[in-house]
Write a structure and sequence with these properties.
CATH class: Alpha Beta
Strand order of the largest sheet: 2-1-10-5-6
Strand content: 35-45%
CATH architecture: Alpha-Beta Complex
Largest sheet: 5 strands, mixed
Helix content: under 10%
Number of strands: 10
Order of helices and strands: EEHEEHEEHEEEE
Radius of gyration: 15 Å
Length: 162
């Protein structure tokens, strides 16, 4: 799936004080960091020492932007894909809205122009083609989670399936 950067946006919605949309230019203007992490797939493979560049979710959305009832997030991706996380996972320091992989713009086959990077969890939680963060009071299972994958997906606890 190819998404031009000129039309890419990230919508922040749900239990927020103000719904807003972040453009590609706004994302690039935010403070970016470089991060090296290992990736773990639910099917059993691991990639060591992958290099990413992006913006911490916590630099794009502050907890003050959320209504007190917000406890979870539904992560939306272009094409109707979703996944879900509790807020404490979304706001970890290592969770990025990533736009570079291995020193280059994130290619479409890896979810470019932008994907969520959640390195502590199985890689399906790092949604490709990121398009929205919808804050909710209750957990709402995403595409794979509603088909039997674990709601959290911690590889160290082998949380593959529910």
């Amino acid at each position: 799936m190819h998404i031009p950067t000129s039309s890419w946006t990230l919508t922040i919605s749900g239990l927020v004080t103000t719904k807003r949309t972040i453009s590609w230019d706004e994302l690039l203007a935010a403070p970016a960091i470089d991060q090296v992490c290992d990736l773990h797939c639910v099917t059993g493979w691991t990639l060591l020492d992958t290099r990413w560049r992006g913006v911490r979710v916590s630099d794009l959305v502050q907890t003050e932007d959320l209504l007190p009832s917000a406890r979870h997030v539904v992560i939306h991706a272009t094409g109707g894909w979703t996944t879900n996380l509790p807020l404490e996972e979304l706001f970890r320091e290592d969770v990025l809205v990533a736009h570079e992989y291995e020193g280059r713009p994130l290619p479409a086959e890896h979810g470019g122009p932008v994907r969520l990077l959640v390195p502590r969890l199985y890689f399906w939680k790092s949604a490709k083609w990121l398009s929205g963060l919808e804050f909710t009071a209750e957990e709402q299972l995403g595409y794979w989670e509603s088909r039997g994958y674990h709601a959290l997906g911690d590889p160290w606890l082998e949380q593959r399936y529910s």
